[in-house]
Design a protein that fits this description.
alpha/beta; about 20% strand; three-stranded parallel sheet; disordered C terminus
Length: about 290
């Protein structure tokens, strides 16, 4: 499998390079923690504009805390004014390294940045939050994590790819850092989600009732019904009730189903009521029909 730079880290690198191009940064140093093969991704970072790179080599899959401790050692040596990370890796999706690094260094931090403005002794970071935008001002040195809308990463040109081969790439063993990288959690398994079964198309309402009666998952069948206006109309004709209003106990559909399945369908019809098929909203009085058998 061909590996690539984490997309959020590409955004972080692009922002660092843009700051240097604007004359606000003197040097961009790319850092990675991983196997020796990670040198390829660091060469890509050099081709995209980083001045030099450091790889902390390890054959183990490190947890966020161990990575944060390694980065702490790098920061202690390099003394950067601004540390920019991708907000998370798209394989583990932990979204923890930045926060842990900030705690270890006691640095101010701003996560999920959508805009960054660097001043002489501070940095303003705009974050997208529920309901609007939040702007923070941090005293440097500081830590920032990037979100998708911060920028659009550039592509490496062929001349820059060739130049990257001559740039400095320092490889350090994790043992030389003195960091305790022992795992604190155990990975039990990684599995693909179960494959989705193919849907079933029925011709009549009677066939639908039969499918509901014998279905292992009647909720899924009704969910398909909910998004089909034609079947909603047919459903109302057969059951003499509005679609997605709780089914009465003496309805045709209710009589065809076992009590346990009928109750499950009632609850589903209420919770997934939508104005897509009916403008009538579920009233509290309707829910009285939902008494569990």
């Amino acid at each position: 499998v061909k590996m690539a730079v984490n997309p959020f880290c590409e955004i972080a690198l692009e922002e660092a390079v843009k700051l240097k191009e604007a004359g606000q940064a003197s040097e961009v140093v790319a850092v990675s923690v991983g196997k020796g093969d990670s040198q390829e991704q660091l060469r890509t970072a050099l081709a995209l504009g980083a001045d030099r790179a450091t790889l902390v080599e390890t054959e183990s899959l490190l947890e966020p805390l161990a990575i944060a401790k390694v980065l702490q050692k790098i920061v202690d040596d390099e003394k950067p004014d601004l540390i920019i990370l991708g907000k998370q890796a798209i394989d583990g999706d932990n979204n923890q390294t930045c926060e842990m690094l900030g705690a270890l260094l006691d640095y101010p931090q701003a996560t999920n940045a959508s805009e960054v403005k660097l001043e002489s002794s501070s940095v303003q970071v705009t974050r997208e939050i529920d309901g609007g935008l939040q702007t923070l001002e941090l005293t440097i040195p500081a830590i920032i994590t990037t979100d998708l809308r911060l920028n659009e990463p550039r592509y490496a040109s062929l001349p820059n790819i060739m130049k990257a081969k001559k740039k400095e790439l320092n490889v350090v063993s994790i043992n030389d850092t003195g960091v305790d990288a022992n795992p604190r959690t155990e990975l039990i398994s990684v599995e693909l989600p179960p494959s989705r079964e193919a849907g079933v198309i029925v011709e009549t309402v009677e066939d639908l009732v039969d499918k509901l009666k014998n279905s292992e998952d009647p909720k899924r069948t009704l969910y398909l019904l909910k998004h089909n206006a034609h079947w909603a109309e047919e459903y109302e004709k057969v059951t003499s009730t509005k679609a997605f209003v709780p089914v009465s106990r003496d309805s045709r559909l209710d009589q065809a189903l076992s009590p346990s399945i009928a109750f499950r369908i009632k609850v589903f019809l209420v919770t997934l009521h939508t104005p897509l098929l009916s403008s009538k909203r579920v009233r509290r009085s309707d829910i009285s029909l939902m008494d569990k058998p």
